[in-house]
């Protein structure tokens, strides 16, 4: 960038930043979250205070955090990427050794009054670190084995720690988010082909390990995979969730059974109806129309992010935006595939819709970074 | 770090290319999701809708109310009453132990009851209502209801249970109901779902059991919406079941009560039949028991008391008891001889007190002998030797045929438990069952209703009715079924010769009306009510030669269970017979002294449709009879109301 260019282009400062916020994205995120409020109100049987109320508060707070993140210059986030990554890994190690056990998995770390779920935060810090890494790395070198190896290690360490908790869903998202950044950074497609091939080998190994001493997955994870492959094996056991979820989804029909009329969710046949399976309550009550509407909102979010990424002037901004968007895609795609019986149940919530504060905060921090990239893009003087 | 612009541009182009590539892949995946939604929500939606309904809709059976059992006059003898019970819902009641102890301060709850209830509560899910105690009195329920605020999760409920207002009076005939047991289910090929309702009551013995299919009714149902754990959310619709059919029996409430009271403490039975129809008016078996105990769940002690009593209160002796008929069988022998002309009514036989047959001496009950007796006096004085003589002439085949004609040895098809066929012995029977040939001594024993012959009190009443009418009377117990009168069986003539039958009836008349008759002291002086009967005293153990040599002991000197059975059969009025009766008193001693007075009182009660009229008795007996009747009428209570007490194991 020459001095001249610097003179004609300008990064917004102060309150004028508000004007450069990507408002379309804010509106879309709010729309998605509103679908969540509606369904949380419905599955609570019309009890606003049970889920919908707290969820709205969390959304409001998270949105505030998003704006704060958006107003902080992007260079700051870039310089924080390495630190954030290091803190994440340290916290994950902390969970491993000092974490409290909840629901059969070690996920929480308690520091004083704070309850942290480091794996949530890691989804973002890995993407930031990868974007910063490829921004730093000479694009000519991205496909060299050494630098690919560094990137793979950066992804693999936190993924492995999360997998050990065990939290297969989050580990997948972390792994996927990092891989997406590598993909955009231009790493040779041969590597991806190789990984997919190796993945096939790993799956084979996982199944071969079943029942042996070095079993790679927990028994319940194997049962979930069995239930996915053939839901009729054990309708009241491992497959119960997915069967009931499919019934809820399928019984919605074209336009659904009506708001608050879904019997599957109202009568508790649907498990985890306010978290992982909330999409099914929407599908039951609003049918095909409602389901496609929500999917369209998600796609619109992606499109807005991709446009923003392509207009970005820095490599870091592009990679970060695309990484966050890719992560968001993985989020809803895995959840929807799971609740529609296209993927095993791995415990990934529906972003911004499922009940839960930690995930929502991290997603909006992620979009805060996207906004920051958008706000702090050098622009022609008006 | 600065990089040449060219490089940056190239990396930006690469990002755009890859974004297009991955974006395309993502859109393709979104397309897959949409296709999947389309196939599930549009393609298979009706299938899934059905599955959703199957999930949420449960069908619960509603027990129908059981048909009532009425007597011939429409008096309810088996009714349904409110059954108050206490139901506890754990999730509202909190700690079950504490809740039960709070409850125990209001209603009597024993420690074992509390423990059992606690176990039952903990077995169910917290929202399931568990019946912790039932058969409560209204007072107890009212006490619980009044304290409802202090007893969260504990509610009184009302259902139906069987109640027998006349208690012991109909215990044997009507029987009782109880909760369905494993055995009840095992007996049925394909048990109705209704029987699976917890604590559902079905008939266990008697009419309740035999006509259970009529009485039970059919279940109603309600469709309810349940949630995933089965908790009822709301009722979708409800269809009440059809109540069971009411049954009107031929029994007469008052006569039944009188008969049972008159039998008193004896181990005895009495059957009263209306001759014209065969209707059984009274079917009394003593001692009896309170069937309500069984409905509530009888205590172990009460049950042991009934089971171990040597007078067998739980047996319905009127149809289950098979006794040697003794001299009441003599009419059969007499008619067998007369019908085939093997004897004439006027013929006389000399009774020296015994008869030698093939070297064996058969004794008459009167050791001094009756002298010369004819048919009439042989019946009225109950001379045994006369019938020994007849027996030798007619043989067992004719006796067997006549007994069958008069209704003995037949199992009557009545809705009662354990109806016995008695035993009308024949040559074939002895050959098949005893693997021995019939000998003349068997015939001689049979001629006076001893030896192999066994009859039930019901059969004796039928025999008496047939003797009184020369018609094939059949007993009838069910008068109306659901208001529809049941047909009376055809009564074809027995075809016995009028002359012979007239002599037998005359003999029976003299039994209680001639001063030489064995039941003269039980005569009825009112000419319109006079009865004709026959006494019987059947030996339970044969008297050995040694005992006879030592002198036959008086019945009162024998231990109870070695005494003779006392029997009496009669019909009345003797001119136009309307009622037939049989009375059997186990180990009562003598038919004339024990059974005949009972039969007289009961048949007078039947004729008078109330208590026996005092002026029908000989003047000299009236004082004694009056006090006896007063005692009995005090025992006959009005219908009981459902009791307050509980008895439970």
UniProtKB/TrEMBL annotation, chain A:
Enzyme group, top EC level? transferase
Q: Which GO terms describe its biological process?
A: cell division; cell wall organization; peptidoglycan biosynthetic process; regulation of cell shape
Task: Please provide the record's keywords in A-Z order.
Answer: Cell inner membrane, Cell membrane, Cell shape, Cell wall biogenesis/degradation, Glycosyltransferase, Membrane, Peptidoglycan synthesis, Transferase, Transmembrane, Transmembrane helix
Indicate yes or no for the key word Signal. no
Query: What EC number is given for this enzyme?
Result: 2.4.99.28
Its UniProt pathway annotation is:
Cell wall biogenesis; peptidoglycan biosynthesis
- Output the Gene Ontology terms for molecular function: lipid-linked peptidoglycan transporter activity; peptidoglycan glycosyltransferase activity
Q: Where are the transmembrane segments?
A: 20-38, 59-77, 83-104, 146-163, 170-192, 286-307, 319-346, 352-375
List where in the cell it is found. Answer: Cell inner membrane; Membrane
**Cited HAMAP family:** PGT_RodA
Role this protein plays? Peptidoglycan polymerase that is essential for cell wall elongation.
Listed NCBIfam families: rodA_shape (TIGR02210)
Name the chain's protein.
Answer: Peptidoglycan glycosyltransferase MrdB
Q: Write the lineage as a comma-separated list.
A: Bacteria, Pseudomonadati, Pseudomonadota, Alphaproteobacteria, Rhodobacterales
From TrEMBL, chain B:
- One GO BP: cell wall organization
Q: Where are the transmembrane segments?
A: 20-37
The entry's localization annotation reads: Cell membrane; Membrane
Record domain Penicillin-binding protein dimerisation: where: 63-236
Q: Which residues form the signal peptide?
A: none
* SUPFAM superfamilies for the chain: beta-lactamase/transpeptidase-like (SSF56601), Penicillin binding protein dimerisation domain (SSF56519)
The keyword Cytoplasm appears for this protein: no
Query: Molecular function (GO) terms listed?
Result: penicillin binding; peptidoglycan L,D-transpeptidase activity; serine-type D-Ala-D-Ala carboxypeptidase activity
Q: How does it sit in the membrane?
A: Single-pass membrane protein
Could you tell me which residue ranges the Penicillin-binding protein transpeptidase domain spans?
Answer: 269-603
User: Pfam families from the xrefs?
Assistant: PBP_dimer, Transpeptidase
What's in the keyword line of the UniProt record?
A: Carboxypeptidase, Cell inner membrane, Cell membrane, Cell shape, Cell wall biogenesis/degradation, Hydrolase, Membrane, Peptidoglycan synthesis, Protease, Transmembrane, Transmembrane helix
Q: Which GO terms describe its cellular component?
A: plasma membrane
Stored PANTHER family: PEPTIDOGLYCAN D,D-TRANSPEPTIDASE, PEPTIDOGLYCAN D,D-TRANSPEPTIDASE MRDA
Q: Under what name is this protein listed?
A: Penicillin-binding protein 2
Q: Which organism is it from?
A: Pararhodobacter oceanensis
Q: What is the lineage of its organism?
A: Bacteria, Pseudomonadati, Pseudomonadota, Alphaproteobacteria, Rhodobacterales
């Amino acid at each position: 960038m020459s001095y001249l260019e610097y003179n004609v282009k300008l990064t917004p400062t102060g309150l004028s930043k508000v004007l450069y916020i990507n408002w379309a994205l804010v509106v879309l995120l709010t729309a998605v979250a509103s679908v969540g409020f509606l369904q949380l109100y419905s599955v609570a049987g019309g009890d606003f205070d049970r889920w919908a109320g707290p969820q709205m508060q969390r959304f409001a707070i998270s949105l505030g955090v998003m704006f704060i993140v958006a107003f902080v210059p992007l260079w700051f986030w870039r310089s924080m990427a390495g630190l954030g990554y290091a803190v994440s890994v340290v916290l994950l190690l902390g969970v491993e050794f000092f974490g409290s056990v909840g629901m059969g998995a070690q996920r929480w770390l308690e520091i004083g009054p704070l309850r942290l779920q480091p794996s949530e935060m890691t989804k973002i810090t890995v993407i930031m670190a990868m974007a910063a890494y490829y921004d730093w790395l000479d694009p000519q070198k991205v496909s060299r084995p050494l630098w690919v190896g560094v990137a793979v290690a950066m992804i693999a360490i936190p993924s492995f720690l999360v997998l050990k908790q065990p939290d297969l869903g989050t580990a997948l998202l972390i792994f996927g988010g990092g891989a997406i950044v590598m993909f955009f950074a231009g790493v040779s497609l041969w590597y991806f082909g190789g990984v997919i091939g190796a993945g096939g080998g790993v799956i084979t190994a996982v199944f071969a390990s079943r029942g042996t001493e070095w079993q790679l997955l927990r028994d319940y994870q194997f049962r979930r995979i069995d239930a996915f492959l053939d839901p009729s094996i054990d309708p009241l056991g491992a497959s119960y969730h997915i069967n009931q979820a499919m019934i809820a989804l399928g019984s919605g029909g074209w336009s659904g059974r009506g708001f608050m009329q879904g019997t599957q969710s109202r009568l508790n046949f649907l498990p985890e109806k306010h978290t992982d399976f909330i999409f099914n309550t929407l599908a039951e009550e609003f049918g095909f129309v409602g389901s496609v509407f929500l999917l369209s909102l998600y796609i619109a979010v992606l499109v807005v992010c991709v446009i923003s990424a392509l207009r970005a002037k820095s490599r870091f901004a592009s990679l970060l935006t695309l990484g966050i968007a890719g992560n968001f895609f993985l989020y809803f795609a895995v959840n929807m595939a799971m609740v529609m019986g296209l993927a095993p149940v791995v415990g990934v919530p529906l972003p911004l819709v499922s009940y839960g504060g930690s995930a929502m905060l991290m997603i909006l921090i992620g979009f805060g970074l996207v906004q920051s990239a958008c706000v702090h893009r050098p622009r022609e003087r008006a | 770090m600065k990089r040449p612009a060219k490089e940056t541009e190239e990396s930006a182009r690469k990002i755009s290319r890859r974004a297009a590539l991955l974006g395309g892949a993502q859109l393709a995946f979104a397309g897959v999701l949409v296709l999947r939604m389309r196939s599930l929500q549009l393609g298979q939606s009706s299938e899934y809708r059905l599955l959703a309904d199957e999930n949420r809709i449960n069908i619960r059976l509603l027990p129908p109310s059981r048909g009532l059992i009425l007597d011939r006059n429409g008096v309810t003898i088996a009714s349904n009453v409110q059954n108050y019970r206490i139901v506890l819902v754990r999730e509202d009641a909190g700690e079950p132990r504490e809740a039960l102890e709070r409850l125990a301060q209001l209603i009597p709850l024993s420690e074992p009851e509390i423990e059992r209830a606690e176990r039952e509560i903990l077995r169910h899910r917290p929202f399931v209502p568990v019946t912790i105690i039932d058969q409560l009195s209204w007072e107890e329920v009212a006490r619980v209801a009044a304290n409802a605020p202090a007893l969260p999760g504990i509610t009184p409920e009302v259902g139906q249970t069987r109640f027998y207002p006349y208690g012991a009076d109909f215990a044997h005939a009507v029987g009782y109901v109880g909760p369905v047991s494993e055995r009840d289910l095992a007996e049925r090929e394909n048990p109705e779902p209704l029987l699976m309702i917890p604590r559902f009551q079905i008939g266990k013995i008697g009419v309740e059991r035999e006509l259970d299919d009529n009485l039970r009714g059919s279940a109603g149902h309600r469709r309810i919406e349940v949630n995933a754990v089965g908790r009822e959310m709301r009722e979708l619709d409800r269809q009440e079941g059809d109540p069971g059919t009411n049954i009107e029996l031929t029994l007469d409430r008052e006569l039944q009560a009188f008969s049972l009271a008159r039998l008193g403490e004896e181990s005895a039975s009495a059957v009263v039949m209306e001759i014209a129809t065969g209707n059984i008016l009274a079917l009394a078996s003593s001692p009896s028991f309170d069937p309500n105990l069984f409905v509530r769940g009888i205590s172990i002690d009460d049950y042991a008391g009934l089971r171990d009593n040597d007078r067998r209160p739980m047996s319905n002796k009127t149809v289950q008891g098979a006794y040697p008929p003794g001299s009441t069988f003599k009419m059969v022998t007499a008619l067998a001889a007369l019908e085939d002309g093997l004897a004439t009514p006027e013929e006389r036989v000399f009774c020296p007190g015994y008869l030698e047959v093939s070297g064996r001496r058969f004794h008459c009950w009167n050791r001094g002998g009756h002298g010369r007796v004819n048919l009439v006096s042989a019946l009225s004085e109950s001379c045994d030797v006369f019938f020994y003589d007849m027996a030798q002439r007619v043989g067992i085949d004719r006796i067997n045929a006549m007994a069958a004609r008069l209704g003995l040895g037949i199992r009557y098809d009545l809705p009662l438990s354990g109806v016995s066929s008695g035993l009308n012995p024949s040559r074939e029977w002895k050959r098949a069952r005893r693997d021995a040939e019939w000998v003349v001594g068997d015939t001689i024993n049979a001629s006076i209703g001893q030896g192999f012959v066994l009859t039930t009190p019901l059969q004796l009443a039928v025999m008496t009715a047939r003797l009184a009418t020369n018609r094939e009377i059949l007993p009838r117990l069910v008068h109306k079924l659901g208001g529809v009168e049941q047909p009376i069986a055809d009564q074809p003539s027995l075809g016995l010769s009028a002359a012979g039958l007239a002599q037998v009836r005359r003999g029976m008349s003299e039994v209680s009306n001639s001063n030489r008759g064995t039941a003269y002291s039980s005569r009825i002086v009112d000419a319109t009510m006079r009865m004709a009967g026959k006494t019987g005293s059947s030996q339970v153990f044969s008297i050995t030669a040694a005992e006879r040599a030592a002198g036959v002991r008086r019945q009162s000197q024998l231990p109870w269970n070695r005494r003779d059975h006392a029997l009496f059969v009669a019909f009345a009025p003797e001119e136009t017979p309307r009622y037939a009766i049989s009375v059997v008193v186990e180990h009562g001693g003598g038919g004339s002294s024990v059974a005949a007075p009972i039969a007289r009182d009961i048949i007078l009660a039947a004729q008078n449709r109330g208590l026996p009229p005092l002026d029908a008795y000989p003047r000299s007996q009236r004082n004694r009879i009056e006090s006896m009747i007063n005692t009995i009428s005090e025992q006959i209570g009005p219908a009981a109301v459902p009791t307050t007490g509980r008895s439970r194991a």
